[in-house]
UniProtKB/TrEMBL annotation:
Organism whose genome encodes this protein: Terrapene triunguis (Three-toed box turtle)
GO molecular function, one term: olfactory receptor activity
UniProt keyword annotation of Magnesium present: no
Predominant location category: membrane
Name the record gives this protein: Olfactory receptor
Pfam family, one: 7tm_4
A GO CC term attached to the entry: plasma membrane
Record keywords, A-Z: Cell membrane, Disulfide bond, G-protein coupled receptor, Membrane, Olfaction, Receptor, Sensory transduction, Transducer, Transmembrane, Transmembrane helix
The G-protein coupled receptors family 1 profile domain, residue ranges: 42-290
Amino acid sequence: MQELMNGSAVSQFTLLGLSHSRPLQLLLFGLVLTCYAASLLGNLLIVVTVWVDPRLLQSPMYFFLANLSLIDMALGSVAAPKMLGDLLSEGSTISYGGCMAQLFFLHFLGGSEMFLLTLMAYDRYVAICHPLIYAETMRRHRCLGLLATCWAGGLLHSATQLVLVVRLPFCGPSKLDNFYCDVPQVVKLACTDAYVVEILMVSNSGLISLVCFLVLLGSYGVILVTLRGRFGDGGGGKALSTCSAHLMVVSLIFVPCVFVYLRPFSSSRMDKIASIFYTIITPVLNPIIYTLRNREVKEAMKRLRHGLWFPCWT
């Protein structure tokens, strides 16, 4: 067989998945399908709510929230559809090109989301700690520029990962100990010493996750200090509730990523659990956290529902 363009003789990979027990596979299918459908519907509802409500759309915080929901819908679609098909079928294989595509979009969307969450923390920092210059600092064209920077950062991060992976030779075995393609499992299959590549990738993914996480914690630490004297008024309580929701999302996303990527690559069941968390569970929790703890979003959803049910009365 002629080797592939990248020098690899492997044309497809076998995904070992989460379990070989048929009853457990069917149970997982139901759970993943429920999470995936809830993620799509919940995040789509947030996007539509923000888009049709002028007050929310003009607010940088909700503009960024709508973009976060778009990323979550796309991120959840990277692994879930393939996983659902594999849970129903007897075999679980993915082509070399499909594997590289999964890897690319996982890191592109995941990196963009991390940068966006950092941007959202900066937005809250300016709004709470420097309210007099907030309107000038977070003007719409500047928000668009910052958002484009987040997407560009995610693209650069993902392209770097992909270039490092496709340069590796793969000559077998071709079994990936996961339910989707990701850097740690793919690199371990290279038929060459990939220690330097592992270090580069840990420096890339791991340090990005850690640095963004530390910046976020620092920003919210300053915010909490600023809010100490405002707990008695409504504004302080409202800001604290918003920041609490952001911190919950940040913890759900960053902690598993730091655990997986900020250490030498290895195979363990905890890696799979962490992978499930940030590819399947987190996209469905984000809309729940933001809507249940945010009065403005809930009121906008009520207005949206009222407008859909009684269009002639509005």
